[in-house]
Amino acid sequence: MRKQMQTARGMVRHRGCAEPIVASRGGHRSSIMNVGRRVDYAVRALCYLAAQPGDRLVSRAEIQLHQQIPPHFLSKILRALVGAGLLCSVPGVRGGFRLGRPAGSISMRAVYESVEGPLSLIDCVQQGETFCRFAAVCTQIGVWGEAQGMLRGYLEGISIGAIADRQGLVARLRARSRRGWPQVA
């Protein structure tokens, strides 16, 4: 039986090697990339805003309504997107949000990294031996590094403008229901 000690950073230490704690849903995130709700909600919000006229300010409540994003998530996400320069925020009663730059210049990678930080499939690719003592001799680290590069390039090549959504997901789902298409669970 290995002696283990959980560290404050969500790592398990044994025999001198730190390994990430891999837990099921609801626990700590695995070191393998997980596209979570924050990224999904950020993309939804930006897609809706990208389809609006450029001079139009859109309220947080409108984004929430049309894209069905929980308010506690949306406020934090909008702050992150403003901080990254992807959105502009205009305060006040008639204020709201609009894109901070053209939709065609906002990549999916930029959205991901604005809410999650640098895109990383597995921590040892970025952190090397500071994360795992085997990084220098690992036979799989190159595979993950190349896959990470491919994913970064792919997401960099998809813009928010290319997937803009004028109606919003709620209206599109209602229209689908009216046409009698089967619902997806």
Describe the overall structure.
The protein is mainly alpha-helical. Among the domains are: about 1-30, no CATH class; about 35-115 and about 160-170, Arc Repressor Mutant, subunit A, CATH 1.10.10. About 40% of the residues lie in helices and about 10% in strands. The protein has seven helices and five strands. The chain has a three-stranded antiparallel β-sheet, with no helix packed on it. Strand 2 (about 10-15) and strand 3 (about 15-20) form a beta hairpin. Helix 1 (about 35-50) packs across helix 2 and helix 1 (about 35-50) packs across helix 3. It starts with a strand and ends in a 7-residue tail after the last helix. Residues about 1-30 have low confidence and may be disordered.
Cα shape: elongated
Class of secondary structure makeup:
mainly alpha
Give helix % range: 40-55%
**In what order do the strands lie side by side in the largest sheet?**
1-2-3
Number of helices: 7
Q: Radius of gyration, Cα only, in angstroms?
A: 20 Å
The CATH topology name of the domain at 37-113 and 158-170 reads Arc Repressor Mutant, subunit A
What's the name of the CATH homologous superfamily of the domain at 37-113 and 158-170?
Winged helix-like DNA-binding domain superfamily/Winged helix DNA-binding domain
Poorly predicted segments: 1-30
At the first level of CATH, what is the class of the domain at 37-113 and 158-170?
A: Mainly Alpha
The pLDDT mean sits at 80
